Inverse folding.
């Protein structure tokens, strides 16, 4: 199988007159053979993108093109797409083999041929030998593999994934990520994935589109979005934690951290410095290469690593910087430390007057 090129143009969905759009003027390109992730919180419009793409809902405005063909009015079953949902939605009364063979049977293929192809796709998802088992006897991870095999057996031009791994535990999610990466190498499908997990998007997608409130905030490679978010909203949705308000003057950001050189030219004026916690290095207070000195006020273990929050006071104001410690590193609360913020990892975004001053830690960080 080979994937098709998908293009969404001005895609808008309004559920009722006078209501806030669930999706507003979204443009998105999914090149043939690529994986694009739509990332956003609950209610951001992610699933609406998939439903409009699949033809399960009609857009209020905009269009969906596949290989240059406008799909307006084309029934879902004729769009050349297959979707895998968060719940596998298998037929419990059928065997694993017949669940996967379903698409071929609907297309009129003989039972024997459909079952033979089903076994091939079960091998692809590492479930060879499971074909005769009843679907209701499978584990959650196995069910999702069968759902994926069934979708692939339909030989779709575009594979749509609606948070299909979110109900699995961390180990099974990682296994499914590796499985999907292997399938991409063998089959070269076009994939449009929606997820609320930025780590999953980074692991699976070539490009990521950040969605919030029905609007596309930024799209590009995840590395670019991590390092150069367009706004505080994008930074926060990608797990950014450090936000230091200040002013840009002559290529430097001035704040309680001091005057820090910026890697890219930025217009003068109020701006917020953002820097990924993974990029910040905690060192000694006497380190001559330290860009700022402050006090460690909180340390949160994260497996072999830890996240430390450092308060820095300067110019009568206080700012906080989060840094990720390396394996085996430790910092005592109350200790005075130095911080290195590499110039290449410093980035400023416009002041967001509607947003709180600092991101709210997620429950997993507490």
């Amino acid at each position: 199988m080979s994937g098709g090129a998908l293009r969404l143009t001005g895609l808008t969905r309004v559920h009722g007159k006078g209501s806030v759009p669930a999706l507003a003027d979204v443009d998105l390109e999914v090149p043939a053979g690529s994986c694009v992730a739509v990332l956003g919180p609950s209610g951001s419009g992610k699933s609406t993108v998939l439903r409009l793409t699949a033809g399960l809902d009609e857009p209020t405005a905009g269009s969906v093109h596949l290989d240059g063909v406008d799909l307006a009015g084309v029934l879902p079953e004729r769009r050349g797409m297959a979707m895998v949902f968060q719940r596998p939605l298998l037929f419990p009364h059928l065997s694993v083999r017949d669940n996967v063979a379903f698409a071929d049977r609907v297309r009129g293929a003989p039972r024997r041929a459909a079952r033979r192809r089903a076994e091939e796709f079960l091998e692809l998802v590492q479930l060879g030998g499971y074909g005769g088992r009843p679907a209701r006897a499978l584990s959650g991870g196995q069910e999702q593999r069968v759902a994926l095999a069934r979708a692939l057996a339909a030989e779709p031009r575009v594979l749509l994934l609606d948070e299909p791994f979110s109900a699995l535990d961390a180990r099974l999610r990682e296994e499914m990520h590796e499985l999907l990466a292997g399938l991409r190498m063998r089959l070269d499908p076009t994939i449009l994935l929606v997820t609320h997990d930025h780590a999953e998007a980074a692991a699976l997608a070539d490009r990521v589109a950040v969605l919030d409130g029905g609007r596309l905030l930024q799209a590009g490679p995840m590395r670019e979005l991590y390092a150069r978010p367009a706004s505080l909203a994008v930074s926060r949705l990608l797990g950014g934690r450090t936000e230091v308000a200040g002013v840009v003057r002559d290529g430097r950001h001035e704040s309680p951290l001091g005057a820090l050189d910026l890697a890219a030219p930025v217009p003068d004026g109020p701006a917020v410095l953002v820097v990924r916690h993974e990029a910040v290095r905690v060192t000694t207070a006497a380190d001559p290469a330290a860009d700022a000195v402050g006090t460690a006020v909180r340390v949160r273990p994260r497996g072999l690593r830890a996240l430390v929050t450092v308060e820095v006071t300067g110019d009568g104001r206080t700012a906080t910087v989060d840094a990720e410690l390396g394996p085996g590193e430790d910092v005592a609360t109350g200790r005075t430390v130095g911080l290195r913020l590499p110039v290449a990892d410093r980035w400023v975004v416009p002041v967001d007057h509607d947003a709180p001053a600092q991101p709210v830690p997620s429950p997993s960080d507490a």
Summary: The two ends are 45 Å apart (CA to CA). The chain has eight helices and 20 strands.
